[in-house]
Specification:
The structure holds 2 protein chains of 2 kinds. By secondary structure, chain A is mostly helical. Chain A has 2 domains: 18-83, no CATH class; 89-342, no CATH class. Chain A is 67% helix and 1% strand. Chain A has 16 helices and 2 strands. A two-stranded antiparallel sheet of chain A has the order 1-2. The mean pLDDT of chain A is 87. By secondary structure, chain B is an alpha/beta fold. Chain B has 2 domains: 1-79 and 170-259, 3-Layer(aba) Sandwich (Rossmann fold); 90-167, no CATH class. Chain B is built from 11 helices and 10 strands. Chain B has helices at 42-49, 72-78, 95-102, 111-116, 119-138, 154-167, 184-201, 212-218, 236-241, 243-250, 252-258; strands at 4-13, 16-26, 31-35, 57-62, 65-66, 80-82, 172-176, 204-208, 221-226, 229-234. In chain B, β4 and β5 form a beta hairpin. In chain B, α5 (119-138) crosses α6. Chain B is globular, with a radius of gyration of 19 Å. The chains are: A mainly alpha, B alpha/beta. Chains A and B meet through α10, α11 and α12 of A and α2, α3, α4 and α5 of B.
Chain lengths: 449, 259
């Protein structure tokens, strides 16, 4: 009975995933999601329905141009505009983008080249602190004690140098990657993991303690305010003119920053995906995979191990550097806390969850982890808090919700939940949500030698 | 001048001398075998040649270059390719990709070219793919270019390894027990393939082999190692009659009994 229903379901879903049904499905899903978010901007479920329509558009077998148009429309127009009705959505989208970029970078190191890097956020920190220092007043506070600034100094550089610093962040993080990589890349496997873990901590501790003798990082107080690039006024007016009616209120520059950073992050991700795919599909990408599969055989084929590993480190680091710049500017505040070891583990979780070595996989992994963190677990916590206020009883147990201890808070069980998810993944789907696949080539059928 | 010449090569592991004053030479276009009982130091000698191990003493010259102190990738770039005793393919890559990795040292594309998908890059990749495809057929594989290497049967994996080694356009091909685990028919095909590689491509072949039928059939010259030393060298017929070789293989007592 159950297996019959399952096979029926499979046949239906197979039919829905191709042919005219596919177009209908994508259209319906996207429209329903859009309407739901429009009508109830506070509901997490309607947001998830809208977000998952991206996945549907990707999964179905349909005209590539159609898919592209739908995805671009959703990502570039629908989501930012609807996000203005609830800024929190843009925050989630931004976080997904940031972590997707980090996961893509780590994916090169861990997924392609097979080098387990447990200190990956170090490069993210390098980027963030680079703009934090040059994009703030910190330069004028070099000789002050941390936490005593008055906030009257001018900014060191104009805000729009931000755009230059995105590129500088890439370069500086890549150089850091090479410098950190040089001494450690002769190590293999577990040893490499331990040493990179150490380096990640070194960068964080440096950020924490470089407030003396010269105050570069302002120590644990963190650096603030950090400048954001200016948004041209005509852009704000144009946005209000076009979408003002839909949003239902006048959008101010401050709100539009959320859209700006989200779109900027999308551009960075698009570049990262392009670079990753092109590298993967070249001599260098093949060398990385060969090193992952068998170092001894790879070097016997003439692959210079150290140089290729350094290239993987540098490429992965550069993505994190760019995102660090973006992060510092978005938050206008940077402190060592954002770059803890658990962050590195978090990014690694996204890579493993999504599928090691798989580009769509790690993006999905980042989305799942961020949504789980910010929406599902937080949502459960809020729901539970509301229940505690009420007189309701837990069904069957007849235990009042009020008496459930405050310590029981799903948002605090984040790591536990991820732990359980990872264990389940390793048992049931070890290659990840979307496993990596090798490119299938169109090989000539017969070729005289 | 010999293509490959080693003089007095010594490789020690702690107190054990795995290769002891090994002097050996190889001319261009030869097919030569190194044989010897298990643990005689044959594979260690291969690893010393290819730069995986650094010799404690001795000279290694290949095609006018000294190999001492070179990394394995540098040795490979000079034109020395190899296969492994226990197959070492890149299991999660396709067959064609495995062969493309073998071509690594011959591809001239740069990272910017790869990122911009420059015309040169596309042409080189297309040509490389085509060549990988024809090498795959050359070693007798069918339409398996898009199969993952780990999913192929054993004999086919051996062939992929040879195709991968040929990808680098080697001058010298080192084969470490290339017919181990093959049935007689596969072995016969492998021998034919090695001959063709030498005859048609002019590649010099040095192989380590256990199977005496293979060794006697294919080799023009044989070197025999025992306890890290070269104990004999000569044509298959000379080796077959050599008293020290018989002793090394059968033990002294058994050898005298046979005699």
């Amino acid at each position: 009975m159950i297996s019959g229903a399952a096979s029926l379901l499979r046949r239906w879903s197979a039919a829905a995933l191709r042919g005219p049904g596919a177009y209908l499905l994508v259209g319906l899903h996207a429209t329903i999601g859009t309407l739901l978010v429009y009508s109830s901007p506070r509901s997490a479920i309607s947001f998830l329905i809208l977000l998952s329509s991206l996945g549907t558009a990707l999964a179905v077998k349909a005209n590539a141009a159609f898919k592209l148009v739908v995805i671009l429309l959703l990502a570039l127009v629908v989501m930012p505009v609807l996000g203005m009705r609830n800024i929190f959505y843009l925050e989630i989208l931004f976080q997904i983008s940031v972590f997707a970029a980090l996961a893509l970078g780590l994916n090169i190191v861990v997924g392609f080249a097979g080098l387990l890097d447990l200190g990956y956020v170090a490069f993210y920190a390098v980027g963030a602190y680079l703009w934090a220092f040059f994009g703030s007043r910190q330069y004028y506070y070099l000789h002050t004690e941390a936490g005593t600034q008055t906030g009257t100094a001018p900014f060191l550089l104009p805000a729009d140098t931000f755009y230059i610093f995105v590129f500088l962040g890439i370069i500086v993080a890549a150089i850091t990657g090479i410098l950190l990589g040089l001494p450690v890349l002769r190590l293999r496997g577990d040893y490499l993991a331990i040493v990179t873990l150490g380096f990640g901590e070194v960068i964080r501790v440096l950020a924490n303690n470089l407030d003396r003798p010269l105050n570069f990082t302002n120590g644990p107080h963190g650096i603030t305010p950090i400048q954001r690039p200016t948004i041209p006024h005509f852009f704000v007016d144009a946005f209000n003119g076009t979408f003002g009616g839909l949003v239902g209120k006048q959008v101010r520059d401050v709100d539009l920053y959320n859209v700006f950073f989200y779109l900027f992050a999308l551009v960075v991700i698009a570049v990262i995906i392009l670079v990753t795919r092109r590298l993967d599909d070249s001599k260098m990408g093949r060398a990385w995979t060969a090193i992952r599969e068998d170092e001894t055989a790879a070097i016997a084929m003439g692959i210079p191990l150290v140089r290729m590993k350094l290239a993987a480190f540098a490429a992965g680091a550069s993505f994190a550097g760019a995102m660090g710049i973006l992060f510092a500017s978005n938050r206008t505040f940077v402190s060592p806390e954002s770059f803890s070891f658990l962050q590195s583990i978090g990014v690694l979780t996204m890579v493993i969850l999504g599928g090691v070595g798989s580009i769509p996989g790690v993006i999905l992994g980042a989305a799942v982890v961020v949504i789980l963190n910010l929406q599902v677990l937080q949502g459960l916590s809020l729901y539970l808090a509301a229940l505690r206020q009420s007189e309701a009883l837990i069904p069957i147990l007849n235990f009042p919700w009020k008496s459930v201890p405050n310590q029981f808070d799903p948002a605090k069980y984040q790591r536990l939940v991820f732990g359980i998810i990872l264990v389940l993944m390793m048992i049931f789907r070890p290659a990840g949500l979307i496993p990596a696949a090798r490119r299938q080539r169109e090989l000539a059928k017969d070729e005289g030698y | 001048m010999a293509l490959l010449e080693t003089t007095g090569v010594v490789k020690r592991f702690g107190g054990l001398t795995a290769v002891d004053r090994m002097s050996f030479s190889l001319d261009k276009g030869e097919i030569v075998s190194i044989i010897g009982p298990n643990g005689a130091g044959k594979t260690t000698f291969f690893n010393t040649l290819t730069g995986i191990y650094k010799p404690e003493e001795g000279e290694l010259h290949f095609d006018g270059h000294s190999l001492v102190g070179l990394r394995p990738d540098q040795v490979a770039a000079l034109g020395v390719s190899r296969t492994f005793q226990n197959i070492r393919l890149f299991g999660s890559m396709t067959v064609v990709e495995n062969i493309l990795v073998g071509m690594h040292v011959r591809l001239k594309q740069s990272v910017p070219q790869a990122l911009l998908r420059a015309g040169f890059f596309k042409r080189e990749e297309a040509a490389a793919e085509k060549r990988a495809n024809s090498l795959m057929r050359y070693v007798g594989l069918g339409e398996v270019g898009n199969e993952l290497a780990k999913n192929l049967p054993y004999g086919a994996q051996r062939r992929v390894e040879i195709a991968r080694a040929l990808g680098a356009d080697p001058i010298l091909l080192l084969l470490d027990e290339p017919t181990a685990g093959m049935n007689p028919q596969e072995t016969a095909e492998a021998i034919r393939l090695f001959r063709r590689i030498r005859d048609e491509k002019g590649i010099t072949i040095l192989l380590i082999e256990h199977d005496m039928r293979v060794v006697m059939n294919i080799s023009e010259r044989i070197s025999v190692m025992d306890y890290g030393e070269k104990i004999a060298e000569g044509s298959p017929d000379e080796i077959r009659r050599n008293q020290r070789v018989i002793e090394a293989y059968l033990g002294r007592e058994a050898a005298t009994r046979v005699a």
